């Protein structure tokens, strides 16, 4: 498994931007499809975006499409989530996750998880 550590969360006003990072170690990062998920208080874990291991094809939840961009730098063993035009409903703990194989929007497909980073969007 790959070990994952997120960073970059914080407090931002509605309409603002944040960039989350996820540092990977312990295994061959480039072999892993990666995803971002989030969990708001009292709610289940929600899919945000996923990126494949190879050419980096991406897929987004409808709620973030056009505002968020997932990317990866295999040379730096890093995953990113650029979040623009943030809304109060984006407030959640954001998790990065990894899996061997193709990208997936389902949390149960992932076997490596970070500890999460808090994103709070004020209105």
Question: Can you offer a commentary on this structure?
Answer:
By secondary structure, this protein is mainly β. 0% of the residues lie in helices and 52% in strands. The chain has no helices and eleven strands. It has strands at residues 3-7, 10-13, 18-25, 32-39, 45-51, 58-60, 68-73, 78-83, 92-100, 112-113, 117-122. Strands 2, 4, 5, 6, 9, 10 and 11 form a seven-stranded mixed beta sheet that branches. Strands 1-3-8-7 form a four-stranded antiparallel beta sheet, with no helix packed on it. A hairpin with a 6-residue loop joins β5 (45-51) and β6 (58-60). It is globular. It starts with a strand and ends with a strand. The mean pLDDT is 95.
State the end-to-end distance: 39 Å
Helix and strand content put the structural class at mainly beta
Sheet-strand content, in percent, reads: over 45%
User: Biggest sheet, in brief?
Assistant: 7 strands, mixed
Order of helix and strand elements from N to C terminus: EEEEEEEEEEE
Q: Tell me, what's the shape?
A: globular
Provide a count of the helices: 0
Query: What is the gyration radius calculated from CA atoms?
Result: 13 Å
Which regions have little confidence, pLDDT < 50, spanning 5+ residues?
A: none
Q: Count the strands?
A: 11
Helix content: under 10%
- Mean pLDDT score: 95
Structure summarized in a few sentences:
By secondary structure, the chain is mainly beta. About 0% of the residues lie in helices and about 50% in strands.
